Amino acid sequence: MSRLLKKHPGLAWIALVVFTSVCSLAVLWAQKNRSTTAVAPAVKSEAKPDLHPVTIKPGPPTPRLDTGLKDPHGKPITVACSTCHSTTTPNADRKTAHDLVQAHRGLSYAHGNLTCLSCHNAKDYDTLHLADGRSVAFPDVMTLCAQCHGTAMRDYTHGSHGGMTGHWDLTRGPRVKNNCVNCHDPHHPKFPLVKPVLPPRDRISVPKEPAGNDKH
Amino acid sequence: MPDPASEKPKTPCSGNCSCAGGNTTPPASANGTTRRAVLKGIGATLGIAAYAKALAPLTELTKQTSMDEFLQKHYKELSKDEIATVLKRLTRETKEQYGADVTINDPKPIDGVKFGYALNLSICNGCRKCAEACHIENNHDRPSHQSYIRVFEMTKGSMDFEKANAHYDHPVPQPDKYYMPVQCQQCEHPPCVDVCPVEATWKEKDGIVVVDYNWCIGCRYCEAACPYHARRFNWQKPQIPAAEINPVQSYLSNRIRPQGVMEKCTFCLHRTRNGRLPACLEACPTGARVFGDLNDPNSEIRWVLENKRVFVLKEELGLKPQFFYFFDE
């Protein structure tokens, strides 16, 4: 490089001009990027004009209760949650599922010490609600998770919780991120135990195998 | 603190070899003289597998393809046209030997990009889906379950690999354990590159340590030099049913390796150099993996480096891995 500059001093000027313009472009780009990443991702998509979008998988659809009955075409008959719950008295103290007898039997539940109505909306069982009472549609459930799990949400926003597929480089292609509930069942959010796949069969699987122990 | 230099294997030359010793070998010349000289010397110090590999091109010279292969220059010496010819030949050979139609490309490093990888050990549950994804993506030998990733079951609070177990087969995670996937750490100062007697492996601009499988002589010095046990040797010609072959391949990464050569993780450069995420990251069901451009201050990987307490494996060796680990606080 320095040898080249000695031979062609004019190059230094060109290099300087190029360098400064690249720098200012980079700063502009960084600012633009910051302004878009600073906000928590909208639950659906944060499309940018020049970058490919980052899409978050949708939350669950508004649930309905399966009545166990079938219509003439054999399709299960379901009813909206509000069908019954517009007449039942909401039970604000309920925080377990094991004594549910009249409905929702077998629901497995272990989420901190939360009551059912910390999430479900006593005023409208077809929705959820935030701490301030605002209702949240089921597909937007992440807004609700974020309210109590700020750290996880911060990590998620910065790509270090929750995983993704697609492109690391959004100038080349889009990215899809998981929804919290793809991995955490809202009723028992602990990640389940799994059976590992593909046990290794190679010879050196444990580092520091004593020398000469190689089984050829 | 062990001196990494002292861990390097001793100079290979014991026979009628023209090289001056592992590290001081002059750059492999275009006509391959150096490589062949090393090949000759190597049989004396190494096992049968390496020796057979060394002889293989000579015994197979009757076939036109092998002649082409034998005469092929070092990757870095190949012109654009020559690379195109080589890729065509390799594509044809894959069809002949495996019955699969594949596309072999040669993506180059992206200017200004340096890849980094981080893994959250508080999240990883040891399911080995990453190892499996690697196995499939990188066209690894099926019977041996080969993969560039090895997952160690570690005792909580300990970093002792001696007591780690990579062969666990019970539901995970166990309450008193944590899980550490280990793959090539893409060291800034890769000892595996230093010991290669023929310069068949080197570090690219984007930080990826690659192998020219057609130049590698299978001496396995690099395998011995790597403190992370991240390199694998192809003891056999990889066996993969045609239907399972990943057809999207590249010269320096996941094309099917010949028998008798070294292979290693390339951060899936055939994907990542095209802007995509590595296969192991996409496959991780727990979201423990973070990948990106270390030079981009807004990247996810940079956020992790700046906001989590990251560490590298065997830091005392001074190899400066580009692979980082962290725990959530």
Shape of chain A: globular
* Beta strand % of chain B: 5-15%
Content-based structural category of chain A:
alpha+beta
Q: Terminal Cα separation of chain A, in Å?
A: 51 Å
| Rg over C-alpha atoms of chain B, rounded to the nearest angstrom | 20 Å
H/E element order of chain A: HHEEEHEEHHEEH
Biggest sheet, spatial arrangement of strands of chain B: 10-2-11
Task: Summarize the entry for a quick read.
The complex is a heterodimer of chains A (216) and B (329). By secondary structure, chain A is α+β, with helices and mostly antiparallel strands.
Keywords:
heterodimer; A: two-stranded antiparallel ribbon; 7 strands; globular; disordered N terminus; B: Alpha-Beta Plaits; 11 strands; about 25% helix
Layout of strands and helices, then pairs:
The complex is a heterodimer of chains A (216) and B (329).
Chain A: H1 2-7, H2 10-37, E1 54-56, E2 64-70, E3 76-80, H3 81-85, E4 128-129, E5 135-136, H4 141-148, H5 150-157, E6 164-166, E7 175-177, H6 180-183
Chain B: H1 33-42, H2 48-59, H3 64-71, H4 80-98, E1 103-105, E2 115-120, H5 129-137, E3 150-155, E4 177-182, H6 191-195, E5 201-203, E6 209-211, H7 221-225, E7 231-233, E8 248-250, E9 262-264, H8 269-272, H9 279-283, E10 289-293, H10 300-307, E11 323-326
Parallel strand pairs in B: 1-8, 2-11
Antiparallel strand pairs in B: 2-10, 3-4, 5-6, 7-9
Describe this entry's structure for a reader.
The complex is a heterodimer of chains A (216) and B (329). Chain A is α+β, with helices and mostly antiparallel strands. Helix content of chain A is 27%, strand content 12%. Chain A has helices at residues 2-7, 10-37, 81-85, 141-148, 150-157, 180-183; strands at 54-56, 64-70, 76-80, 128-129, 135-136, 164-166, 175-177. In chain A, the strands form three sheets. A three-stranded mixed beta sheet of chain A has the order 1-7-6, with no helix packed on it. A two-stranded antiparallel sheet of chain A has the order 2-3. In chain B, strand 5 and strand 6 form a beta hairpin. Chain B has two domains: 35-71, no CATH class; 105-329, Alpha-Beta Plaits (2-Layer Sandwich), CATH 3.30.70. The two termini of chain B are 28 Å apart. Chain B is globular, with a radius of gyration of 20 Å. Chain B has 329 residues and is α/β, with parallel strands linked by helices.
